[in-house]
Specification:
It is found in: Cell membrane. Keywords: Cell membrane, Membrane, Transmembrane, Transmembrane helix. It comes from Flavobacterium haoranii. This protein has 94 residues and is mainly alpha-helical. It has 4 helices and no strands. It is elongated.
Length: 94
Amino acid sequence: MIKIFKIVALLEGVSLLVLFSNMLVTKNLNLELYKTLLFPIGITHGILFLLYIALATLLKFELNWNFKKYFIICISSVLPFGTFYVEKKYLKEV
């Protein structure tokens, strides 16, 4: 299950960066591409975010994480590059 969580963490981090780049770069260029890409990128990121939180909750009980570690892992999913940090720091020893 930890391998699946690592993959989802990587994909969730990438989808967040893609969503931000779509919002910041494409929107400011006034391209029609922004409106075309917004829904598929947004729904993909939303599904990956929910999957990330669900897997983190399951792993909390499976690996007996304390609340602080669980909280940091969950909060990192809303920060750019946060999931990459979690994978290096918290999931390396698992």
